[in-house]
Amino acid sequence: MLANLFLHYAFDLWMAREFPTVRFERYVDDAVVHCVSERQARQVLAALQDRMVEVGLRLHPDKTRIVYCKDGKRRGDYQHTSFTFLGFTFRPRGARAKDGRMFLSFMPAVSKDALKKISAEVRSWRLHHRTGHTFADLARMINPIVRGWMNYYGAFYRSALYPLLTRINAYLMRWVRKKYRRYRGRKESQQAWARVTKQYPRFIAHWQWSTAVPAVW
Questions:
Q1: Which of 123, 171, 184, 216 is exposed most, by the fewest CB atoms within 10 A?
Q2: Which residues contact 197 (CB under 8 A, 6 or more apart)?
Q3: CA dist list (Å): 117 to 41, 63, 110
Q4: Is the pTM of this model over 0.85?
Q5: What is the largest CA-CA distance in the chain?
Q6: Looking at the predicted structure, is the pLDDT value of residue 123 above 70?
Q7: How many CB atoms neighbour CB 139 within 10 A?
Q8: What is the pLDDT of residues 68-78, one digit of tens each?
């Protein structure tokens, strides 16, 4: 809260006063500033470096950079063509237009670091070892968490989350095979999985997006 209050005066109001036409987003001490040209970006960066010194701060030497938002229309080359902000990595990605045509867009998706952190949490649940629990118990345990990930990280380029959701399904499938002897065969477990996910598509939060499981689990 203190950082937000300080930077509201040290950064937000200063930007509005010195560069009123330049848009930006800031969360605590992370910010993205939108410039229309490299020349403008260098001008803003130089002024911002002086401003931070003026208020007793300095820009992070490794994280502060000018990024070229490359896409199908901006086809130039630049050293940096991606950045990460609030758990999303913004970079050139394939996208599909309403008419089905594919094109290159500069879009956000869940970052590798965020996925790594989420994956570690999923592993820590040890779902496949919770055979003393019911399926309803597991649903109550994971649904609020997974739904939160879906609502936040799935707001943009949700397909980047599919491998993670498939991994959760793999743990649930292993739980089924451990808990119920009659489903320990691959064919039997696959049939049971298909039947349950079709009959109860919202029982597990992410089944509305993906019910797939890896070929090997």
A1: 216
A2: 207, 211
A3: 32, 20, 11
A4: yes
A5: 71
A6: yes
A7: 19
A8: 999 999 999 89
CA distance 138 to 89: 31
Closest to 67 in 3D by CA, of 99, 101, 94, 35 = 35
DSSP 109-141: EE-HHHHHHHHHHHHHH-GGG-TTS-HHHHHHH
Distance CA 14, CA 63 (A): 21
Residue corresponding to tokens 């130089």: 46
